[in-house]
Amino acid sequence: MSLLSSKNLTPGLLSTITALVMAAANALMILFISDVWYVPLLVFAGTFLVIYFLYYYTLQRFIYRKIKLIYKFIYQTKATKREEYFYANVLPQKSIEEVSEDVQRWATQRKDEIELLKANEQFRKEFLMNLAHELRTPIFSIQGYIDTLLGGALNDPAVNMKFLSNASKSTDRLVRLVDDLDEISKLESGRIPLVQENFSIQELIKEVYEELAFKSKAKNIPLQLKKGTERPLFVYADKQKIKQVLVNLVDNAIKYGNDGSAVITGCYEVDGKRVYIEVSDDGPGIAEEHMPRIFERFYRADRSRARAIGGTGLGLAIVKHIIEAHGHTVTARSKPGVGSSFGFTLDRAAA
Asked: 230 and 274: one domain?
């Protein structure tokens, strides 16, 4: 019984067992009918040979050839002549159960691939739609100002400089958008090499704070290092790329922060090998349903407020790509009415 229930029955073994059973049954029947002793033996031998070859041929011809055809569909790798001989004559042929498991595994894999393709297609559609919208806004603004100027406003000193200034601002926004898209494309393709060096992360944060001091003062938002994390921590990373990350995170915290709140950056040593940097604000926060998508290109949790504030919508996507290029990840924590915190890790500099 254990032999019959085995999952490794080959066509030859299955044919042998079936032929033996049929031949033995026929031989026993003849034994009771015939008095000649060798007749049952002849019947046994003849029945065994006929049943064996008929059964074996049927299995090979109609079942295992179909199985081979199935494998041609589910496997993309073509075997060489030597591999085909090895599979057919050396390795035991797979049982129906094993074939079923292979087909189910293949079906699951294809289902996952289809779902991934659908998700990518949806992401592509949203990306193109958002890109078109982001491009349309400054282009329409520029077009409107130029048309107005060409319509006669150019000769009106009360409005011509104002319109030209506004057109210039829209042009600058368009240039920033193209530059950010180019930056992301280069980061994704690995065309921007990392120039890594040892530096103090706190000193870099202070440098970023100095560059953004004018913006923070305009909104009365102090920029601070978290108390207890002032001790210099040295990291090994691309200094200019990490500066770009910090500028994006701190600039976002200032933009979305409430007037009079604070932007606080903390630096923490992790397991002796990594340093964790976190930029926190006391702004309006982000709703939970938006959190999984905030690092996507052009995704905005609050579109109306984001467009009023400005920006290309690519800042967090650039942050994500830069940190991942360093072999690390960026994370976010937020709660509406409380604020947001964005953190990332870097390799600690060797002593």
From this structure: yes
